[in-house]
Specification:
Pdz3 Domain; 4 domains; mainly beta; Thrombin, subunit H; 9 helices; about 450 residues; globular; 6-stranded antiparallel beta barrel
Length: about 450
């Protein structure tokens, strides 16, 4: 889509007489002020704004209480009557973008709809539609939801790799629940990573105002094409300071394909642990001030090991993209699927080498809950992935189990058990007495609470 041309004034100067030739005015041009046409984003926004929606969610949460109140022996001793779990409803607001009008697919952030019991989408024309979840990727903070197909407007997708610092961009979203709002700015930086906001980061930084509620909204270029999804802000004072971050459109569309197909992102594994190059490492490895990611560990029998990589190798390129630090290689591998090929260039000493590795499957430790404690019958547990809260994840829970009746849900993370901090399944095994009560501290999004299981 091209921006409608702004009327130009062509002045031909002759002496001693001046002539002014005015080119014909085209339909849809902004009005004149003192003979001059004013540039406007309105025509572009009229096309783009119907594709940006408001998202509201409601979630029923268990109110935290003293774990002793959940112990029937304690209640009987003090003659305290049985109590039902207290619940509250939490509501949140965010934004989304219609990226497929034929299937009714809406792109948003995972944190906008995380753990939601109901999701309602409000279109630009005022219609309210119930949405269902298609799939989420918490590590990249991307989610796809679906609404009924009925006269929807989708947004065109741009190639975000063509963005340059200084390009003009426009943010469209629902800040503070005010309703659809537009702000403008420029691309301040590209490839921002290592911020600790998400597990996989490759952000577009912009000074277009992004505030709470803008999450999941559109960052568009002046042609009205989606270049990114607004996700986070840097706000040391609690308000907007002109530093906002958006996930590039190329990244979200890659994730979208996997979410639509599988309902999840099936990330592969290279099997390396890397670290950034420091001046001390550059000197120790006798390098010539190159950028890259130093391999500090190789997992046994991994794709990296099979490809012949070794600790001390310095990866400088992956699939033709230069690697500046460990975040770069993590992001590239994180966007690849099992079975994909990755061409790596690396230094071993002063010798530059090339190798092709095949991305393998991540094998996470898993355990049936009843193998750990009888009260966990019906649950499947695993160690959380990198980038998530460290602990033990409830992957699946049988809805007929005591675990479900206790208020636990898939996605909950055990961060401590019997008052001991646990980071993985092995640590959880060490602190659990199979014959005794089990006190667990659960992390659910931003909420935390205790549960006693027997």
């Amino acid at each position: 889509m091209n921006i409608k041309p702004i009327k130009r004034l062509l002045f031909l100067t002759f002496l001693p007489v001046y002539f002014c030739i005015v080119l014909p005015v085209q339909a849809g041009l902004p009005p004149y002020v003192e003979g001059q046409a004013l540039p406007s984003l309105a025509p572009m926004l009229e096309r783009s704004m119907p594709a940006v929606v408001n998202i509201s969610t409601s979630t029923n949460i268990t109110v935290s209480e003293n774990p002793l109140m959940q112990d029937p022996v304690f209640r009987q001793f003090f003659n305290i009557p049985d109590q039902q779990l207290r619940r509250q409803q939490r509501n949140s607001l965010g934004s989304g973008v219609i990226i497929d009008s034929k299937q009714g697919l809406v792109l948003t952030n995972n944190h906008v709809i995380d753990k939601a019991d109901t999701i309602t989408v409000t279109l630009n024309d005022g219609r309210q539609l119930a949405a269902k979840l298609v799939g989420t990727d918490p590590e990249a903070d991307v989610a796809i939801i679906q609404i009924p197909v009925d006269n929807l407007t989708m947004i065109p997708i741009a190639d975000s790799s063509q963005l340059k610092v200084g390009d003009f961009v426009v943010a469209i979203g629902n800040p503070f629940g005010l309703g659809q709002t537009v702000t403008s700015g420029i691309v301040s930086a590209l490839g921002r990573s290592g911020l600790g906001i998400e597990g996989y980061e490759d952000f577009i930084q912009t000074d277009a105002s992004i505030n709470p509620g803008n999450s999941g909204g559109a960052l568009v270029n002046l042609r009205g094409e989606l270049v990114g999804m607004n996700t986070a802000i840097l706000a040391p004072t609690g308000g907007n300071v002109g530093i906002g971050f958006a996930i590039p459109s190329n990244m979200v569309m890659t994730i979208k394909e996997s979410l639509v197909k599988h309902g999840e992102v099936r990330r592969g594994l290279l099997g390396v642990t890397t670290q950034d190059l420091t001046p001390e490492l550059v000197k120790a490895f006798n390098l010539k001030n190159i950028q890259g990611a130093a391999i500090s560990r190789i997992e046994s029998n991994s794709p990296a090991a099979k490809a012949g990589l070794e600790p001390g190798d310095i990866i400088v390129s992956a699939n033709g993209r230069p690697i500046k630090n460990s975040h770069d290689i993590r992001n590239i591998i994180g966007m690849m699927q099992i079975g994909d090929k990755v061409d790596l260039e690396y230094f071993r000493g002063s010798e530059k080498k090339q190798v092709t590795a095949t991305i393998g499957k991540q094998e996470l430790p898993r355990l049936a809950g009843n193998q750990l404690h009888r009260s966990l019958q019906g649950a499947q547990l695993s160690t959380t992935l990198k980038g998530q809260v460290e602990g033990v994840l409830f992957e699946k829970i049988d809805t007929a189990s005591g675990v479900w009746r206790a208020g636990l849900r898939p996605g909950d993370v055990i961060v401590s058990a019997n008052r001991y901090r646990v980071h993985n399944l092995e640590e959880l095994k060490q602190v659990v007495d199979p014959n005794g009560p089990l006190l667990i501290n659960i992390q659910r999004g931003q909420e935390g609470f205790f549960v006693v299981l027997k």
